[in-house]
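BUG: 3D viewer hangs when loading the predicted structure for this chain

Environment: internal workstation, default settings.
Expected: structure renders.
Actual: progress bar stalls at 90%.

Input used:
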Amino acid sequence: MSFFISDAVAAAAPAAAASSQPGLEGMIFPVAILVFFYFLFIMPQSKKTKEHKAMLSALSKGTEVVTSGGILGKVAEVDDNFVKLEVGDNTFLQVQRHAIASIMPKGTYKTVNKTSSLAKR
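Structure tokens produced before the viewer hung:
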């Protein structure tokens, strides 16, 4: 006889455990949660990553872009790892390629420079 568990409870435990083992029904809920998280988080993130890679491969000289830091500029040179941006008259910044956040419509860079030069006067 055990000090903490009575013999009657200990003898009945293996029979109860054998009859309550989950089968296929016990696996449905965890698998459903995994599928839910895949469609909610993993799939949209991988789609966004593919779109960003395609955008970076489409960069060419003269493209107007915004960096992840919010700097607007026109691409002057494109390298495998770095992009040289013209951010003002004879002012260039060199940023890493993956720091480019988005491509702006043509004419955005001219419009911003024109309005900023008028504000200086």
